[in-house]
Amino acid sequence: MLIPWLLLGLAGDCFAKIYEDVSDLPGLDYDFVIVGAGAAGNVVANRLTENPSFSVLVLEAGVSNEGVIDSIVPFFWRNLSAGPNIYEWNYTTTPQVGLNNRSIPYSRAHILGGCTSHNTMIYTRGSAEDYNRWADVAKDPGWSWDSLLPYFFKNEKWTPPADNHDTRGEFNPAVHSTHGINSVSLSGSRWPIFENQVIQTTREFPKEFPFNLDYNSGEPLGVGWLQSTIGGGKRSSSATSYLGPKFIQRPNLHVLLHAQVSRLVRPQTTKGVVTFGGVEFSQGGSLFTAKATKEMILSAGSIGTPAILLHSGVGDKKALTALGITSVLDLPSVGQNATDQPATFNAWSWSVNSTQTLDPIERNATLFNEAYAQWNATHTGPFTNFGATHIAWTRLDANSTIFETVTDPAAGPKTPHIEILLVWPWFREFHYLWDDYAHSDQSARIPSTPPLIDPGFLATDFDLFAARESIKRAFRFVEAPVWKDYIIAPTVNLLNMSTDALDEFIRNITSSAGHMTSTAAMSAKDASYGVVNPDLLVKGARGLRIIDASIIPFIPSAHTQAATGGPDTSDYLAHRGTAL
């Protein structure tokens, strides 16, 4: 039976055994070499080094997160992914047919902590049905919701919000843990007028938008208070938590920055099983090889991991041979089945009859500086938030016409198709299309620099149908009587558009949620497809494991950071590692 992973974290701002230069390392021979210091990689490094007899090296291509104020202040998250910068890989997709052939930016973190250091910090686990389907496909009950929940608890440290307001009635303590490592909390500053409007909507439209005390209970449908990976008014990432001061000073844990892994080297095949002799990485224009006596663990993400495998000769034999790459292990599923969630960010807004927003702060330098000074002094105030107060999770109607020709792709009847983020700061409701089921066979399929990324956005009838319906749901939400004197008008009345015009609008503004999964997907041990077995060992290999979002066979109905760090193989590796 398999065990899980964990995600994000927070702890402190100072680090001891994080190296900038390979020459400062005591050597390059370790028991475990982990590629990627992101959502799962840092968790596994932390858990493994609980055993003082294990030595662990983590190789991270990005820069340090220390002192990066945009990664620390929750409200500044947008700055990290605004245009090309050193904290991003600066990827773009291939032209997307469903987006009118647009190539769009594809955000991936290039910083210690990975995407946990620059995402929107939203903490959502998904539905119990998501994980039970995963367990069914893997033929391993260890990946079911009930089996993974203890590992979510081991990861999570439920933390009071920055303003210490009374949170009774805003979450269910029974489905959370206060003893984990990664901080999770509710909103740290209040916007009572907007918040009251949202909650009143659940009373006026209880069937369409019922109140959900806690969407992380495994049953997310409804409207609930937003939970975020924030603690003490600061971002909680896997770098600030699992590599915090009391952990990073372990003598058996070393983290090397600016180390870009290109491939696995020195393959040997014995009785049909492949082993690799090391991990090749570059720094400062030179190549180095790190060796692992027990395991090499790939945690480079859904783009980085398959790219490394393909460059190592692990992938579709015919495709690799055609590119002049010697095939070492024929696994056609590597780099295939990329799954992501198309999103409509800031696609529309409403003007409102209220000044209780962040709009004055953003327009007035004096007010902005006052809010920043408050955060600096006490880690309180409006900058302790990402910007949303609630999430509305909803499903398409069971009698929707799309289901006459398409089987419902959701994991079950309690799993949402659509997410609407309810955001106050800029006089707008922030709609976020949650269509988890756009598939492609192209992501990272061809080893290239940069890799080819093709999520296949809006490529199916279901995608576009769900997009249209999600817009209708957003507009329906503000038709509740409570909004009558609050909302003045939408900036663009999308409901007055024809279907063709609305489709064109959707294709022109849809982007990525940045939640790619499944490019090195798990399958049952006896399955002829897939990349890893339920224990996350690469099929046909020994001493090679993958622990990032690429192994998730079906994307959860959630932001993927919790699924990537909440139930990983960290404890399998750490506490059962002596058997490896």
Automatic annotation (TrEMBL):
This is GMC oxidoreductase. Residues 301-315 form the Glucose-methanol-choline oxidoreductase N-terminal domain. Residues 1-16 form the signal peptide. PROSITE patterns: GMC_OXRED_2 (PS00624). Its cofactor is FAD. InterPro entries: FAD/NAD-bd_sf, GMC_OxRdtase, GMC_OxRdtase_N, GMC_OxRtase_C. The active site is at residues 515, 559. Pfam families: GMC_oxred_C, GMC_oxred_N. It comes from Mycena sanguinolenta. Keywords: FAD, Flavoprotein, Signal. FAD binds at residue 261. Belongs to the GMC oxidoreductase family.
